[in-house]
């Protein structure tokens, strides 16, 4: 009896498994089931595509951010490596500064100073701006500012009476600029800005004295400045005088050269 019961139980279980498998086969071939699975797969694909698009956009944004940071770091490095100093000098007899990547023109102007015959005039020779700005229109007169002109043809043929231009220049990679009289070359480690001949106000003029300036070897003239008025600061060449000035190396009555150097 027990054996029969067990056989019946086994048979029932087998029938139940057969019906389950048959049910699965029915579900797998059911169009509604297939459509539902396809729909879910399509939704998953769409979601994956959206996720991929989002990740791509985030990656592009991160790439742009990295590039911006690299550019910013490069600018910082450039600023750190670029000196925060510079030096300035005046080039006399030229309307503009030498053209190179390290030199910037601050302004161009007119050589100016006191009247050659006016006693007590300042010895300074200035590079007056072409764009003056005035405040007051009157006051007590203690000095005058006149234009400067060449007093002979030494610096250039037909230069007598020509008005003298000037320009103020800045060297970005240097810390010092100086004018060296008596030579046309700079010492080791210094860079030449320009060279020429030493100039000053003519000896015997009424002014108490005059500073020395370095006139460029190829001077230019101001437009419409060729009229010889003798009504301003008159500039001529400087000559060496032996005695206390050691000769040689200097030579008596030789015009003195000059050079402007930066470092």
From TrEMBL:
Source superkingdom: Eukaryota
Keywords assigned by UniProt, alphabetized: Coiled coil
Ranges in coiled-coil conformation: 38-65
GO CC terms in record: extracellular space
Protein name: Short-chain collagen C4
Species: Mytilus edulis
Phylogenetic lineage: Eukaryota, Metazoa, Spiralia, Lophotrochozoa, Mollusca
